[in-house]
Design brief:
single chain, about 325 residues, alpha/beta, Peroxisomal Thiolase, Chain A, domain 1, 2 domains, five-stranded mixed β-sheet, 10 helices, globular, binds oxa(dethia)-CoA
């Protein structure tokens, strides 16, 4: 059985930056409320960009940096809950925009846990497709799922894309464990993107915009992320203190700090990009990874932990030797 090695990382953010002060001009909120409750100061918002064009930007950068021949790439997975269309998939459109053709490209929707789910899927795919390389991306334009009149959700989200080029390798010490769960009994605590239904007297199923019970999701996230990380470490037969860095889904700094406390790990090992990016769902972990690699924080040989959580309600942890 082969496993996957991250060859390189890349990210692509929309040009427009919207600050908390910008938001306070269009809704009843303040920089003080948003930054003290969430840790967010700014977020990138797509104007011209789309989920597919951001993902295509990531693909182009990954290929340029690595000089890998596209003919050797077996698949492109785009983890997203905000594709531009149901068909074609964002991954298919991104492949087209990146000037590629003939690579298996598909979307995977596990909401904010998407990158952990897609990365785990990729480790199986390199075996079943018997390919040398694959691309795993998280790309989102959540701004189109936001009700800009609703201050309870509008201040939280941002747009962006990040991803990794992975290589199939015969090494035991790469993807050390994955823990993926969907607690579907709590699915209704966080919803978005219901499509209109018409004809045949069909009933509306829900809102196109984010609807969230913030307290329920907060308590789910702190309990289930710490449990998922503990379960993944038990599977890997490693100690939590063996980890060099924790890269959690970036939803709220208070959630990250609380998970660190519940695990008994110093908060300084939990990386954060919330201040500048906000919550970018499936894109938050790969963009944070790219940022942290480029800053020289995440280095080869280190043990890193990805842990996503969100709609589903889903939670997914990956323990990986970088
Ligand atoms: O990736 C998806 C995963 N999602 C999450 O992880 C979200 C988890 N939940 C959270 O992060 C937090 O629950 C929130 C950040 C969403 C909310 O923080 P909170 O500390 O739970 O605030 P709250 O909902 O208890 O609201 C406190 C007050 C309320 O006013 P009253 O009723 O006390 O008068 C809200 O109406 O703050 C008010 N409020 C705001 N005020 C200014 C809510 N949103 C805002 C706002 N600006 N943007």
């Amino acid at each position: 059985m082969k496993t996957i090695k991250i060859v390189n990382t890349a990210s692509q953010l929309p040009e427009k930056i919207v600050s908390n002060d910008d938001l306070s001009k269009i809704m009843d909120t303040s920089d003080e409320w948003i930054s003290s409750r969430t840790g967010i100061k700014n977020r990138h918002i797509a104007v011209e960009e789309t989920t597919a064009s951001l993902a295509a930007g990531v693909i182009k950068k990954l290929l340029l940096q690595s000089q890998v021949d596209p003919a050797e790439i077996g698949f492109i997975i785009v983890a997203t809950m905000s594709p531009d269309s149901t068909a074609p998939a964002a991954a298919a459109k991104a492949e087209q925009l990146a000037g590629l053709n003939g690579i298996a490209a598909f979307d995977l929707n596990a909401a904010c846990s998407g990158f952990a789910f897609a990365f785990t899927t990729a480790s199986g795919l390199v075996n079943s497709l018997d390919c040398k390389y694959g691309i795993v991306i998280g790309s989102e334009t959540l701004s189109k799922l936001v009700d800009w009149q609703d201050r309870r959700t509008a201040v939280l989200f941002g747009d962006g894309a990040g991803g990794v080029l992975v290589q199939a390798v015969d090494e035991d010490e790469r993807l050390l464990a994955s823990d993926l769960k969907t607690l579907a009994g709590d699915a209704d605590y966080l919803t978005a993107g219901f499509l209109p239904r018409q004809g045949w007297g069909q009933k509306k199923l829900g809102s196109p915009y984010f609807q969230m019970d913030g307290h329920a999701v907060y308590s789910f996230a702190t309990r289930q992320v710490s449990r998922s990380i503990s379960d993944a470490f038990a599977k890997a037969k490693l100690k939590i203190t063996d980890a060099d860095w924790f890269l959690l889904h970036q939803a709220n700094q208070r959630i990250i700090d609380k998970v660190a406390d519940l695990l008994g790990v110093s908060q300084k090992f939990f990386l954060s990009s919330l201040k500048d990016y906000g919550n970018t769902s499936a894109a938050s972990i790969p963009t944070l990874l790219d940022l942290s690699v480029k800053k020289g924080l995440v280095k080869r040989g280190q043990l890193i932990v990805f842990s996503g959580f969100g709609a589903g309600l889903s939670v997914g942890t990956v323990i990986y030797r970088y």
